[in-house]
Amino acid sequence: MSDKKAYINEQVICYHCGDTCKDKTVGKEEKYFCCMGCKIVFEILEENKLCKYYDFEKSPGISPAVRSESKYSYMEDEQTAGQILDFSGDDINTVTFLIPQMHCSSCIWLLENINKLNSGIISSRVNFLQKKLSLKFLNDKTSLKEISELLDSIGYEPLINLESVEKKKKSNYNKKLYYKIGVAGFAAGNIMLFSFPEYLGLDRNLDGVFGSFFGYLNLLISIPVLLYSASVYYIPAIKALRKRAINIDFPISLGIFVLFLRSAYEILTQSGAGYSDSLTMLVFLLLVGKIFQNKTYDALNFERTYKSYFPLSVAIIKSGIETTIPLSKLKKGDRIIVRNGELIPADSILFKGDGNIDYGFVTGESIPVNKILGEIVYAGGKQYGGAIELEVLKDVSQSYLTQLWNNDTFTKKEDKNVSWFSNIVGKYFTVVVLLIANISTIIWLNINPVVALSVFTAVLIVACPCAIALAIPFTLGNALRNYGKEKFYLKNINTIERLARTDTIVFDKTGTITQSGNSSVSFIGEPLDELEKSLVKSISRHSTHPLSRRVYLEYQDCEHFEISNLKEHSGKGISGNILISRVALGSYGFVTGKEKTDKYSEDDKSSKVYFSINDRLRGVFSINNSYRKGLKEVIEKLEKDFELHLLSGDNENEKPHLSKIFKNNSLLHFKQSPEDKLNYILRLQADGKRVLMIGDGLNDAGAIKQSDVGISVSEDISGFSPSCDGILDSEKFSKLPEMILYSKTSMKIIYLSFIFSVLYNIVGLYFAVNGLLSPLFAAVLMPVSSVSVVLFCVIVSNFMAKKKLGKIRFNNVL
Amino acid sequence: MKIIIILIIISLLVAISFLVAFLWAVKSGQFDDRYTPSVRVLFDEEKKSDNNKL
What we know:
Number of strands of chain B: 0
Largest sheet of chain A: 7 strands, mixed
Oligomer: heterodimer
Strand content of chain A: 15-25%
């Protein structure tokens, strides 16, 4: 069987993680693994009879990361452990870990049976949507460190950082809203039942007792709705009034109060049946809308700062002894140790060891940079390779990267979450309604003063803008879900409204419109022999230029030689003497000394790095640029409606290529620091532009935060992204224009439904000003108008999503 | 016919008990996670699976 497999040359899939195996060298009983790590996890599970793990999903595993011995040693420190634990008792401790790798039902099963691997764990519970694992364990049998190491060893590395500890137990779902909707639903259902005699005209036939009994009962039940459930509208209305503004919550609150007062008056004076049914139904529907719009992506975090990525503690050397201290106690001048895969917490000088630092978090470019002794390394880089010793130059919060968060943009609390449209409507609506109410009352005072007051209240009741208050949450809440199915995750519904109003788009280059780690290198010319390959490696290793670094990655397995007389000309190339040869790597002009370009440059789809030995051109490395698929089409489509800018932290050597894609060359800016980017957005906004910023790394964090809408493009949505309004899965980048257009469509749907609701209101007002508004009529008109508006919004919104965003798939659990 | 008033009060009490049950369910966290329980319910009890293997 296995021979046959090999004969067909079928790809061998790792039994544990599902990756393609290079060969069949790592195997066990007809099961093959891509690496030793996967095999070890399999063996652990097999030994403990946990192989059911593989029954629920095919190849559910995660290949465990290589880990250093002391990765979790900081947990031995009691103070640090205390910060991580939820509850620490004499015998039992509880802890909640965030585990981003959790992705399927097999994961849930394994993590909930984790006690079979460590008998000290009493119970384990998974919250899959939030990707959280809650554990209870016995103090004397196991420790936090042991559990973390166990989870890590089977591929589920717990994510512990400064932020998760500082902001513990913050639940973003609103229990109070559920209480309120429960009360409102209870009241609406019961009052409607008790109003049936009134609807059917029965109460007049029965004893008069019934009419007043039901009336009092309804009034009683509606009191908690008025005072408790509807309070979500009073509070924002009062807040706005204090700022001398009127928002949409004001006319809604007014309508609710007038409904109640008029009902109470009618019931207590026995002059009518009141509108308790309309009141409670209205509040119930409005709250349903509120729940619907509160779609949140529990697993995603939109509020990240550098703290989300920084470790909790750091290893320092004090008088020759290594100890662990909390990051907050790190001072200038401390000597710290950073090991393989760890993050550099503060700007420092490399003191000992071989620095190979990946600034992927900062720039989005994840090719490691070589650093030599005495060089400054910036906070935010990740060390790969051996451990390095650093001397801290600046405090954590004062480093090049982190000081961005001291900027006003991050410290001032801005109210980005107010709906612009509903406030405009609220303002004018209220004015018009009050005008109509007053005029009709004055007219009725002259005709029949008895009904004047009832006309006044009827106008206020009918004109309550509940339909528009429902159209916004339902349309945008629905759009939010449709976006989610297309892997575009937005923070809340107001983001869609702001997205629809943007007129300028600013792109970041690296990691946003380019794809990291996806470029290919080919050598044009006579094939290189082993010695020449080593020469390439030795010289490119020292370069800071992204292209040379890419070349380095291709040859990093080759032998390495010492280099002398090393010279790097920024943006041009690098040269030096290796063994007996003079080697140069860089642009054509730099390597050959000639101005004119040569035969290799005909094809312009790729970047070129020229290579010479002893001043003889040896050949050229052609690096296919790694721009995202469909970038050209995306830019073409967007250029019709938007002003497009580009901000890049890199130097200008990609400019010729980019200017072919972007029409307006003057809007391409290079060598921008994180602060430059932020200030650029500020200048655009000062010119009255509404800016959409699309970025990815922490260096864009300021610009993303300051912009009207900041979107982060991410390869791994639950992994890394700066604080933003939305996260776009990078595979859907080519759909960006359609996504932005859909936001405009959604707003148009709201405008249309607003016209509908105004028509309903005019009909209602006609009856109201003529003094014909009966409780039954109100009870019918109100739900009919609300429900029809909601249906219209949801149906049209889904239809347009299908048309604009393509066929919607329903397999995305988030 | 006055008996209806008593019946209605009883019906209201029943409805209130359901409301209280709902509020309690929210409070005790039954709505916190609306996905994991749907998967968890499909896992077999441990003893059963051992018997199957034998």
